[in-house]
Amino acid sequence: MKKCIFLFLLCFISVCSLKSQSKDLQYAIKTSAGLSSDTTLPFWLVANQFGSVPDSDYGLLNTSIFKDYDTPETLFDISYKVSATGFIAQENKLLVNELYLGVRFKNIILDLGAKNDAIAWHNLSSSNGSIIKSINARAMPGINIKTNNFITLPFATSWLEVNANFAHYFMDDTRFVDNTNVHHKSLYIKSRLSPTFEIIAGLDHYAQWGGTSPQYGAQPSSIKDYIKVVFGAEGGDSATQNDQFNALGNHVGAYLLQFNYNKENIGFNFYYSHPFEDTSGREMTNWQDGLYGLFVDFKKNKSLVNSVLLEFTHTKNMSNDPVSISGPDNYFNNSIYKSGWTYHGNTIGSPYFTPKPLDDNGITSG
After folding, report:
1. CA distance 52 to 179
2. Among 308, 334, 330, 142, which residue's Cα sits nearest to residue 249?
3. Helices (H), 232-286
4. First vs last C-alpha separation in the chain
5. Mean pLDDT by 10-residue block, N- to C-terminus, for the chain (366 residues)?
6. What is the pTM of this model?
7. Which is nearest to 168 in space by CA: 151, 146, 148, 136?
8. What gap in Å lies between CA 91 and CA 140, rounded to an integer?
């Protein structure tokens, strides 16, 4: 193997980190660097960094000003954050990582702007616990209304909780279909079967729609078309030939099945995130494909090892079954939205799906 696998100088951990906080306002200043004997950096130094680390030798400075929500007991609260990163690399850049305002009323939150997802499983997961939505790409700007984590239902306060969201995002990067919109919704149900054991099941659904394609022209983007996207309805006469008979837009989703067993001194969590992009995936013809994880929490924060994660990703089935009418899946790619499930050149889903290099126009073809 090449020397570069073994011989590289790493300054990827923060060499400077300053934090301060008052009752409301907080700020952080961080700097880091990365050097390699090759033209690119090792995979895990670039992946799952919210798209903020370039894939070449670099030095960066990140600054952020933010306010978190106060105690959950408050009826009304706000949070906000402004975070920017500048780096010197093969291509020098200044980018806005996060820019959002959050408003919480009781157990409902409204987020306006670009906000990173919360990091799950102690940041050990290769894809943040979801095969379709990792922390590998930058946050998309948009509007998101969601529950404040899991909330209890009035008629089942002791055994049933729900976690849901409904959002609209804008893909403002350079891509094949310019000004692509993204619809997002999710619904998870948690059932507590005993004081130590609970089950979580649900789905996460995204759909790229609208925008202007250099090949197919302006895509359907009316309110009527948006309703079709939300419900996964056929595109009709105004859509391309492919979308006339299939769901309008490029739909990407995942089912989640999770088992939690928690005691005072240890916790076990098993999760299975299954991808779907068409009927075969929704009907789980490709049930073998997915992200499988087993997380063990020793609940000892001061211990040398406080948690362990065993994870496995399988994507070789692709609904490639003779009985599948829709044919093999081509995960994260689409014939109309040819930049696929990427944002600013980074895969939005599992970083194992590496995108094609950017062309001369700064566009990846999926």
Report:
1. 22
2. 334
3. 241-245, 279-282
4. 28
5. 34 46 80 89 94 93 93 86 94 94 95 97 97 97 96 81 97 96 97 94 97 94 93 66 66 96 95 87 84 95 90 87 62 92 96 89 83
6. 0.88
7. 146
8. 22
